[in-house]
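User: Hey, my collaborator sent me this sequence without any context and asked if I could get a structure. I don't really work with proteins. Can you help?
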Amino acid sequence: MTSNSITLSQFLDIKKQVADKGKELFNSQQVQNLKQKIAQEKEGVKLAGSFYENIFMLMLDKLDDLLNIDIPKDVFAAAWSKHKDLLEYRDSEQYPPEVTFLVPLVEHSLKTEHTPSIEPSLAGKSLGKLELEVEVEFLIKGAILEVRDAKIMKIRLSTIKGTGTLGFAGISFLEKENSLELPGILDLGEGIPIREPFERGDRAKAVENPGIEDKALEGNPRAS
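Assistant: No problem. I've predicted the 3D structure and written it out in structure-token form, which is a compact way to encode the shape of the chain:
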């Protein structure tokens, strides 16, 4: 993650939200089913009264790691790299690989969805999967992409607003609105390759079903 970047976990303020909503989640039907499975696996073994709540809170604590997803790189750039209006930059004759092109983006929205899951086990046996539903919609007030050799190499962003929700067992327990200021240039290192959506051989991305409004890209690129 770049030094002035931000993750989905930070954006949703996961640690605080989990601490506030832990009791409510612990009483959900899905967690009660998990308790029954643990009890069956440990039949005849006396467990401390706080055992189930402790193991549940430990699992929720893993959410911070599951949502450690760099928003500019793994959400924004990953979605933009599959937008149809950027495909022309794969043409090495029209866009020489040694030249950097600046591509301005107008204000647009971008939606990202994730289903991180936790699958606890006991004595080598799975106790079932706990799946969470994460959905965030961003309003991007404008950005400039630096494209070179058919890759998005750097991003210049302005103000970003977003609304996110986190659901568990079909229950929405978190809604968060946030406004981000990411000044300066975000360097994407080796860059994000521009590619056809769902191109064969494409590795799984953190972004699922990314969407950019039609005509989100405007202006002629300037070589530098």
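In plain terms: The chain has one domain: 8-223. You can pass these tokens on to your collaborator as they are.
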